[in-house]
Amino acid sequence: MKKYQKRLNFAAAVLGVTLLILENANALIDLLSKVVNYNGPHVREL
User: Fold this and answer.
1) Model's pTM, two decimal places?
2) Judging by beta carbons within 10 Å of its beta carbon (0-12, 13-18, 19+), is residue 33 exposed, middle or buried?
3) Please, are residues 43 and 34 in contact by the beta-carbon 8 Å criterion?
4) Which domain of life is it from (predicted)?
5) 22 vs 39: CA distance, rounded Å
6) Would you say 33 and 43 are in contact if contact means Cβ atoms under 8 Å apart?
7) 4-42 pLDDT, tens per residue?
8) d(CA 1, CA 14)
9) What's the pLDDT at 7?
């Protein structure tokens, strides 16, 4: 049972880090689309 608990904790940590990276990437894409907004609305199609 302890082995499974370690795996669950590791999976939760990996998912948490992945979520933080994705949220930061989303914020960076929003900021970039605001900065490069003069190119038009097609910036979002990455």
Assistant:
1) 0.53
2) middle
3) no
4) Bacteria
5) 24
6) yes
7) 999 999 999 999 999 999 889 988 888 887 777 755 556
8) 20
9) 92
Whether residue 46 is predicted with pLDDT greater than 60 in this model: the reply is no
The percent of residues above 90 in pLDDT, for the chain, comes to 37
From residue 23, give the alpha-carbon distance in Å to each of 1, 9, 19: 33, 21, 6
* Longest CA–CA separation in the chain, Å: 57
What pLDDT sits at residue 3? 87
Which amino acid appears at position 27 of this protein? A
DSSP labels, 1-46: -HHHHHHHHHHHHHHHHHHHHHHHHHHHHHHHHHHTGGG-GGGG--
